[in-house]
Amino acid sequence: MTPEQVELIQNSFEKIKPIEAVAAKLFYERLFSIAPQVRHMFKADLTSQGMMLMQSLGAAVALLDNPERLILLLEGLGQRHKGYGVTEEHFAPVGQALLWTLEQGLGADFSGPTREAWTELFDTVQCFMLKGLQARA
Ligand code: HEM
Questions:
Q1: pLDDT band at residue 63, thresholds of 50, 70 and 90?
Q2: For a pocket test of ligand 1, which of 82, 84, 88 has the largest count of ligand atoms closer than 8 A to its C-beta?
Q3: Which residues' Cβ are closer than 6 Å to ligand 1?
Q4: What burial class does residue 15 get, using C-beta atoms within 10 Å of its C-beta: 0-12 exposed, 13-18 middle, 19+ buried?
Q5: pLDDT over threshold 80, residue 51
Q6: CB-based burial label for 101 (10 Å; 0-12, 13-18, 19+)
């Protein structure tokens, strides 16, 4: 990712932060409408769950300039997702719901380059989470 993309993500994340509870709710509603088959996996209260997702994306954003730590964190997160029953094909609807939510929350600020930067971030997060998820042990 380029430094400009990192900045676009950090700026848009600042704008989403004040509405993260609403964004989290929108995200799950969207996810369960496009992928109802994943609904049963979520046992925890969805508001706190949504905050966790936002926070871990926040952590990823904050760690973009510290790739070694970020990779370790994401591999660990991916490993835990194995225990939640998550598989590779679940990432596409999660990514779609995430981009849709950002679009709702950011409106006109979700410009072409911002969308591209988020798409790249999600692809990177997915790539390292899958390494953790697919590792033996
Ligand atoms: C960008 C990718 C993702 C991120 C950043 C993320 C983040 C998180 C975080 C931080 C937690 C809290 C528990 C923990 O830290 O282990 C969690 C739990 C969970 N995630 Fe994810 N996740 C991602 C992708 C997915 C995908 C693709 C699925 C599949 C539907 C999924 C399903 C779950 C489930 C079922 C739980 C446990 C919920 C519960 O116990 O109620 N996640 N996720």
A1: confident
A2: 84
A3: 38, 41-44, 49, 52-53, 56-57, 77, 80-81, 84, 86, 90-91, 94, 122, 125, 129
A4: middle
A5: no
A6: buried
pLDDT tens for 64-81 read 778 899 999 999 999 999
pLDDT of residue 87: 96
- What is the Cα–Cα distance from 62 to 83, expressed in whole angstroms? 26
Tell me how far CA of residue 82 lies from CA of 61, 76, 86, 94, 95, in angstroms: 23, 10, 5, 15, 18
Give the residue carrying structure tokens 């400009």: 4
Q: Among residues of the chain, what percentage have pLDDT more than 70? A: 99
